[in-house]
From TrEMBL:
This is D-Ala-D-Ala carboxypeptidase family metallohydrolase. GO terms for molecular function: carboxypeptidase activity. InterPro entries: Peptidase_M15A_C, Zn_M74/Hedgehog-like. It comes from the Bacteria. Residues 5-117 form the Peptidase M15A C-terminal domain. It comes from Collimonas rhizosphaerae.
Length: 145
């Protein structure tokens, strides 16, 4: 099912972790509406960089989110986030481009090998962070480091 010209529901709800662990990762109708918003935002990112955008993680059911060690309040669980990368553009370049673009987001996190872009139900905070990993635990710095 197409959510936008270049993004499908299947792509934004795909999870290797769900498949490996036999977990249901089927989005509800409300989650599907949220994923449509994410897809529309990703279309803006695609236009911004002039290249296809790949999604490594979109929607995560609560069980899938637990299995991947995601934060309990993750926007992924609401279908309001995607972890993305783009061939030919480093994640840091991608994060900086989105930050400077005027694209509305709630949270943008440069995660080293990918970029997390999250939306919200309310007024977007335009929060920009860099994840720093130490022994599998993440801490966050303000801005793109």
């Amino acid at each position: 099912m197409n959510l936008s010209p270049h993004f499908t529901l299947e792509e934004l709800a795909f999870s290797q972790t769900a498949i490996r662990n036999g977990l249901d990762n089927s989005p509800s109708p409300v989650i599907k509406k949220n994923l449509k918003r994410v897809a529309e935002t990703l279309e803006l990112v695609r236009v911004l960089v002039g290249k296809p955008v790949s999604v490594s993680s979109g929607y995560r059911s609560p069980a899938v989110n637990r299995a991947v060690g995601g934060a309990s309040n993750s926007a992924h669980v609401l279908g309001l986030a995607a972890d993305i990368h783009c061939s030919g553009v480093t994640p840091k370049q991608l994060a900086n481009a989105i930050k400077a673009s005027g694209i509305a987001f709630d949270q943008l996190i440069y995660e080293g090998t990918w970029v997390h872009i999250g939306l919200s139900d309310g007024t977007p905070r335009q929060q920009v962070l860099t994840a720093v990993f130490d022994n599998g635990r993440a801490s966050y710095l303000v801005g793109i480091a």
